[in-house]
Amino acid sequence: MLVAAPNWAATSFIQEVHSLVTGATRAEGFQDVNKVFGPPQGSETGLMGSLDVLNLGIGGEIILRFRNPVIYNGPGPDFTVFENVFYDQTSGRPAGSTNLETGTVAVSSDGIFFLEFPTQYLVQDPPVNPDYNPDHYIGFAGLRPTFSHPNNGISPFDPTVSGGDSFDLEDLVGLPGAERLDFENIRYVRIRDTGINPTDSLGVPLPEPPQPGDQGFDLDALAVINGKQDTGRTSVPDEVWQVYP
Fold first, then answer.
1. Alpha-carbon distance 126 to 10, whole Å?
2. 8 Å CB contact between 224 and 82
3. Mean pLDDT of 13-28
4. How many CB atoms lie within 10 A of CB 182?
5. Which of 17, 47, 157, 244 lies in the 20 to 30 Å Cα band around 38?
6. What pairs with residue 163 in β-bridges?
7. In angstroms, rounded to a whole number, what is the distance separating the alpha carbons of residues 69 and 107?
8. Taking a C-beta distance cutoff of 8 angstroms, is the pair 57, 214 a contact?
9. Average confidence score pLDDT of the chain
10. Average pLDDT value for residue range 158-184
């Protein structure tokens, strides 16, 4: 699968859908891949989720390709993922609760080897289930409402006001496999719904796995905060050369 952004889409957002593997129980009416292109479509209050989204389904994943600009490890967060999260005002839930739908995020320079951002669920004492506090989930996408919209003047490139979930490539430096990334030229981002029995990177189960009728991660947009022209070639991994004796 290869879907390029329409001409009107700014290059600082998603430029190309490299591949899409849909999961189970996808939402009808939210299966148009073109919805991921362009800026996020949030609300200033965070009380409404965007309808301009692509639903991945439970366990689905999407790989995004960036050519110009590519993402690089610059100062502060390098990109922000926007889902259609909104504040959940259900009676009895603490202030700040959201209808979070967790996804993991991984990056690649060559489209073959991906390194995933570590995730952690902060287990509460006493346990909380379900737990709708986004502060208890570290390293996931799909936690916080989107405030930026093309018509409200809130910049999608300023994580202090944009909402969404921001990622800093510096968090990957020194991890096993980091030597296989070109931190100056990140060309691919993979977003994967956490699936039917979600856990964090340490294997800790997340509270309340998806219930019947849940439909998984809904991707609104991705904004490149630190982007630049591609400046080099990424070496081909050894396993690719091994197919050519």
1. 46
2. no
3. 90
4. 19
5. 47
6. 146
7. 15
8. no
9. 89
10. 97
Write the pLDDT tens digit of every residue in 63-109.
999 998 999 999 999 999 999 998 987 777 888 899 999 999 999 99
Q: How far apart are the first and last CA of the chain?
A: 29
CA–CA–CA angle 149, 155, 160 (5° rounding): 115
Report the pLDDT value the prediction gives residue 164, as an integer from 0 to 100. 96
Residues facing residue 189 across a β-bridge: 64, 107
Spans of all domains in the chain: 1-245
**pTM of the full structure:** 0.90
Tell me the C-alpha to C-alpha distance, in Å, between residue 77 and each of 141, 154, 206, 219: 14, 17, 25, 19
- Structure-token match 């009808």, residue found: 28
